[in-house]
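Support reply, case 0932

Customer input (verbatim):
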Amino acid sequence: MDALTRSSVMVTGSTIMVFILFMRDIPTVFPLEGNLITVGIGVSLFGAVLPPLFYAVGAPLISGGIANILTSIELPITILLASAILSELVTPLQWVGTVIILVAIILNELGSNLFRIKKHI
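Our regenerated output:
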C-alpha cells in the first residue's frame, strides 16, 4: 500500500473512532465557532500532519538507532511539555510510565555494551 493510501486509511479510521467515542459531545459544539476552527487547524497541523512528514523525511538521513530513540522519546517529551508549558496535571503513575520508557530507551542503546560477555581467545 502506498503512503497516500495508507495515510488516508489511517485518518479515516481515526475519524470514525472519534465519532463513535464522542458521539454524545459532538452536537454540543458549534462547528463554525472561530476559536474551535483555529484550535482544530493547529492541532491537526502540529499533531497529525507535520510530525509524520518530518519523520518520514528525516528518518532515512539518520541511523536506525537514533530513529528508534526519536520514536520512543515522543511520549515522554509530550508529557513533560504538557506539564511544564500547559500546566496539565500529570499523575504519579504517568511519571512512572515516563521513567520506564526513558529507562527502556537507555537500556536499549547501552544494553549491548553493558551486558556484553567478553570472550578471551
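We compared this against your earlier run and they match. Two observations from our side: Helices lie at 3-21, 34-58, 64-84, 92-114. Residues 63-121 form one domain. Please reopen the case if you see a mismatch on your end.
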